[in-house]
Amino acid sequence: MPIAALYVETDGLAGRLSAKLARNDVTGCLLWAGSRNAKGYGTISVATSKPGYTHRVAWELAHGPIPEGLCVLQRCDAPACCNVDHLFLGTKADNNADMRAKGRSRAGSNNSAKTHCKRGHPLSGDNLRLTSGKRHCRACVALWAREQRRATK
Ligand SMILES: [Zn+2]
Ligand SMILES: [Zn+2]
Questions:
Q1: Are strands 128-131 and 134-137 parallel, antiparallel or unpaired?
Q2: Domain 1-107 maps to which CATH number in 3.30.750, 1.10.4030, 3.90.75, 1.20.120?
Q3: 129 CA distance to ligand 2 centroid (A)?
């Protein structure tokens, strides 16, 4: 089935969207190969002044306008995915809960998904220390070292 058949044509948008989608045969994702924003979401120019997000455009082409206040979320966790089978509607709270859940499961053994340590220091820039592939918080290491010195006095 041609990808374009997934969408209802409006102003050439469906054609422009499907022209730059690449199917991932493993996940079934239809990944937008055009421009993306900093978070990895695909962007496409639409009739309104706002930049269109490709996953939102894909959902609207398939189902009609997104109800006010709802977000289009991706089950597959691929921000550029436009496969309507992977998209579902949720609230902002759902979105945040979903991201937190995914963040936890991804954090796994190497901490790579964590942005802050358990005390809330940023795990980035100068405060991030990498030791044999593990990420450590410099501020916490310094606190710990101070505690140790105090304890041995
Ligand atoms: Zn997907
Ligand atoms: Zn810390």
A1: antiparallel
A2: 3.90.75
A3: 11
